[in-house]
């Protein structure tokens, strides 16, 4: 996994541009409605999605497996943006609590145990009434079913990147313990679910 992302960021640098994903804009509204001011972004990449949050005065901390992506983020934001270098599978990286978590395009890259763990770890780092937004690729993606079948609904098209494709049932099954509020469909460069949760 590390090698796949290191190579990708080395070769393609800011590969999705500096515009935040639609999902980050949607999440910003949700976080502002809930008065979030301290946000954790697991899989922050080179930081393009931090911008709408930072612009609203939200303090952002990231976690990222690729050193190159972290260097790009530092170039774009300066050293104000704190990013832990490592895998989300090693969470928690600190003992702090966050009132918001935004995780875009990462959970579907993990295996079943890792998906359970990241959800549990994120929920544990949330304050009471804290909010989480995850996005995950759906089974409507045109490449669904292509590549080597790894396990049910999980395929490897590119070496090193195994993808689990969600349907509404699997979103409900995996997220219902974590204060699932709403599942939206968002068209990014792939069809994604945007999953909103709130801690009770
Ligand atoms: C699809 S990209 C999305 C990046 C970012 N969220 C964005 O939209 O600009 C997935 C990101 O998660 C990072 N990543 C993948 N596996 C990871 C892991 N196990 N731990 C931490 N970061 C990981 C990748 O390096 C990459 O930056």
Q: How are the secondary structure elements laid out?
A:
Elements lengths: L1 H11 L9 H12 L4 E5 L8 H5 L3 E6 L2 H11 L4 E4 L12 E7 L7 H13 L1 E12 L10 E4 L2 E5 L2 E4 L3 H8 L4 E8 L3 E8 L2
Parallel strand pairs: 1-2, 1-4, 2-3, 4-5
Antiparallel strand pairs: 5-10, 6-7, 7-8, 9-10
The protein binds S-adenosylmethionine.
The site of S-adenosylmethionine (SAM) has 20 residues, from β2.
Sum this structure up briefly.
The chain has 200 residues and is α/β, with parallel strands linked by helices. Helix content is 30%, strand content 32%.
Fold and architecture overview:
With 200 residues, the protein is α/β, with parallel strands linked by helices. It is 30% helix and 32% strand. It has helices at 2-12, 22-33, 51-55, 67-77, 112-124, 168-175, and strands spanning 38-42, 59-64, 82-85, 98-104, 126-137, 148-151, 154-158, 161-164, 180-187, 191-198. The strands form 2 sheets. Strands 3-2-1-4-5-10-9 form a 7-stranded mixed beta sheet, sandwiched between helices. A 3-stranded antiparallel beta sheet has the order 6-7-8, with no helix packed on it. The longest helix has 13 residues, at 112-124. The chain is globular. The structure holds S-adenosylmethionine. Residues 1, 5, 16, 21, 43, 45, 48-49, 63-66, 69, 87-89, 104-106, 109 line the site of S-adenosylmethionine (SAM).
